[in-house]
Amino acid sequence: PSQTRRFRRSRATISHLQEEIAKLGSELDALKSTEDIEREEFLRQMLEMNARIRQFQQKASAELAERCSGPPSADGKQGKSAEGQNVSDMNETMDSEGMLTDSADQMNKMNAEVHVLEEEYQKDLLELEKLSQDCLVLQLRHELADVRAKRALMEAVMKETKKLQEIGGYPFHLSRNHFVCATIIICFLDSTQARG
């Protein structure tokens, strides 16, 4: 009777662990799916940022080329007259500094965005790793409970076999048959668990 109770408790524990493993397995799958989506979003944002940087570089190059080439002078060559050269140079310097400040601000903003995205990605990876470890621990507990249940069943069968030997004077070869029966029962339980 106590062996039977222990066996039933072991079965209940195994059933509970199987439910927990299934639950963690679905959570793990959901996290993997979320991770894939976030990775795709991260890559999309990086490509978008790369396109913005290239666009900015092209715009800056075009503006710089435009400023370097002035209106045609009286002799038909590109350039500026000597009179307005100093004023024009100062304006270009101020415009260039403003453009550099804007560029630096845009780069800082983009770097901050990249940093935030990388932190989120690392956080998701750590969460996924922890969930995987939890799932492994539950699986090991399940296997341990299963082994304990099999052991309890074997002990119960051996104990009953021993009692039968003592009571009825059964020869030793019959106790081997009981052991074979216990082994068959365990195999049946294993196949039932595999299906369930």
Can you characterise this structure?
This protein has 196 residues and is mainly α. The protein has one domain (2-195). Helix content is 89%, strand content 0%. The protein contains 3 helices and no strands. The longest helix is centred in the middle third of the chain and has 84 residues, at 85-168. It starts with a helix and ends with a helix. Residues 76-85 have low confidence and may be disordered. InterPro entries: KIP. Keywords: Coiled coil. Residues 62-95 are annotated as: Disordered.
**Overall shape:** rod-shaped
Total count of strands: 0
Helix content: over 70%
Order of SSEs:
HHH
Q: Strand fraction band?
A: under 5%
Structural class, judged by helices and strands? mainly alpha
Please give the domain count. Answer: 1
Please give the largest β-sheet. Answer: none
Enumerate how many helices there are, as a single number. Answer: 3
First CA to last CA: what distance? 26 Å
Question: Spans with pLDDT under 50 lasting ≥5 residues?
Answer: 76-85
- Indicate the radius of gyration in whole angstroms: 39 Å
Q: Provide mean pLDDT, rounded.
A: 74
